[in-house]
Write a structure and sequence with these properties.
The complex is a heterodimer.
Chain A lengths: L1 H28 L7 H4 L6 H11 L1 H5 L16 E4 L2 E4 L16 H10 L14 H4 L4 H11 L13 E2 L6 H11 L12 H13 L3 H4 L17 E2 L6 E2 L11 H10 L12 H8 L4 H15 L1
Helix pairs in contact in A: 3-7, 5-7, 9-13, 11-12, 11-13
Chain B lengths: L1 H21 L3 H24 L7 H14 L25 H4 L1 H21 L4 H22 L5
Helix pairs in contact in B: 2-3, 2-6, 3-5, 5-6
The chains are: A mainly alpha, B mainly alpha.
Chain lengths: ~300, ~150
């Protein structure tokens, strides 16, 4: 009996130890991780260059106030994104120090954009596409920060996301990141300079895959079906393929569409893509041609 | 007797309801045909504006004249209630159209005005036509942004 009791105690002890190790491992795996401060040292943001980053990254497409399209530079947020996990609301990222991000340091900003970690050390949900921005150049994001600090402030309070259990446990996003946050490029072939620039725009700044690539059950992008079209992540209908057999446009078709919003059949852009075209048409033609070169490379 | 009558009316009701369920409203195909005709003519000028083909004043003017008349077709029977994408298959017309009919109509009027401007300049040179083409594209886009679903 004494032995049996000792056995039981030992089993319980082992289970407790395993449990503690598991909990510790989960705690470590789910911890918010920022950037190496070495990566951030000596970055000097240049607002004028930051405007191009702002357009390529499409910040305004999500963060401008719904119904205030006349003020496309007021990043007061509020637009809702209905998803399988709940409803997300784009926050205020205007330079207002109280309701926006005006009191953030450059380092806090880059950590938020490229790692999805808030100045308070909390995980952001990946509705914010840091999953793409992680591949950006820190200098570009420093420029972006400098530019965004020149935009008008707005005192609209950010709205809390409406997310149910268990997705409302922010710490769980850390486990999601451990599984799915990937800094490596998706297309790893040898690329020309133009194709590489296109990859930077498509895979990093412009985060095209967020809509054009299907997701798995945990909401992570299925890179095996990269850019092959997907159900609309936030509403009715489907987002069309921009790679694979279902996509037959020429390089000219792609860059012309991104400049004018006209498809080769002269249908005119609408839906969420309209804002993308409105941004990309303001960049140099070479940027749109680079995107086209990358997309054609995906098809080969 | 009462039971039989109830049954008969239920059966009749189902039979009468069937065609509405089985066939989509012909107005959907008709308005989609209309938009195809818009694009077919707009594309002549769009192709010239993008440099896909050389500018030809006569071709551009003919296309602009067509587009002018096409955008004046009365829309009264093309948008019946219940032909939105939430109610039926085969359309990308968002139900918001019917909740904001005044705005929808004003966006169509803006298209008509932009097309009229384009008609005035289509034959006067490539740059003039291109500006008109971009304005018409903007009118198309304004409506597509608010009222057309993503591809189905």
């Amino acid at each position: 009996m004494v032995n049996g009791g000792g056995m039981l105690r030992r089993v319980v002890l082992i289970l407790v130890v395993i449990g503690l190790i598991a909990a510790g491992a989960l705690w470590v795996l789910s911890a918010p991780r920022g950037l190496d401060s070495e990566m951030l040292a000596g970055l000097d943001g240049e607002p004028e260059r930051g405007r191009d980053v702002f357009l390529a990254a499409g910040c305004g497409s999500c963060h401008m106030a719904p119904g205030r399209e006349a003020d496309p530079l007021v990043m007061s947020g509020g637009r809702e994104f209905v998803s399988d996990f709940g409803t997300f609301y784009a926050p205020n990222i205007s330079p207002d120090p109280e309701h926006g991000i005006g009191d953030w340091t450059q380092e806090q900003f880059i950590t938020a954009v490229m790692r999805g970690v808030s100045p308070e050390g909390q995980h952001y949900y990946p509705a914010f596409p840091y999953t793409a921005y992680i591949r950006a150049e820190p200098q570009d994001i420093a420029d972006l920060h400098a530019y965004m600090m020149t935009l008008p402030g707005d005192e609209t309070a950010s709205r809390n996301h409406d997310i149910g259990f268990p997705f409302n446990i922010r710490r769980a996003v850390g486990l999601w990141k451990t599984l799915f946050l990937q800094e490596e490029w998706v297309l790893t072939d040898d690329l020309t300079e133009e194709e590489a620039r296109g990859r930077y725009l498509v895979e990093a700044l412009s985060h095209c895959a967020e809509c054009h690539t299907p997701r798995n059950m945990l909401g992570a992008l299925d890179t095996a079906r990269w850019m092959e079209g997907a159900p609309n992540p936030s509403g009715r209908g489907r987002i069309p393929p921009i790679a694979g057999e279902g996509f037959t446009w020429t390089a000219f078709d792609i860059s012309a569409y991104l400049e004018t919003g006209f498809t080769p059949e002269f249908d005119v852009v609408g839906g969420t893509m309209a804002a993308v075209v409105a941004n990309l048409q303001q960049l140099e033609p070479a940027e749109r041609e680079a995107i086209a070169a990358y997309l054609l490379r995906l098809r080969d | 007797m009462a039971v039989k009558r109830t049954l008969a009316s239920v059966v009749l009701g189902v039979v009468l309801a069937l065609p509405a369920v089985a066939d989509e409203d012909p107005a959907i195909a008709a308005r989609q045909g209309q938009f195809k005709l818009f694009a077919h003519n707009f594309g002549v000028m769009g192709g010239m504006a993008q440099g896909r083909m050389d500018y030809d004043a006569e071709m551009a003017q003919t296309a602009a004249d067509n587009l002018f008349h096409l955008t004046r077709v009365d829309q009264g029977r093309l948008w019946p209630e219940g032909t939105d994408s939430a109610s039926t298959e085969g359309t990308r017309a968002n139900a918001d159209i019917w909740d904001n009919l005044d705005d929808f109509v004003s966006k169509f009027v803006a298209l008509q005005e932009a097309v009229e401007d384009l008609q005035g300049v289509a034959g006067s040179g490539l740059d003039e036509m291109r500006a008109g083409v971009m304005a018409v594209g903007g009118a198309c886009q304004a409506c597509h942004e608010d009222y057309r679903d993503e591809a189905s």
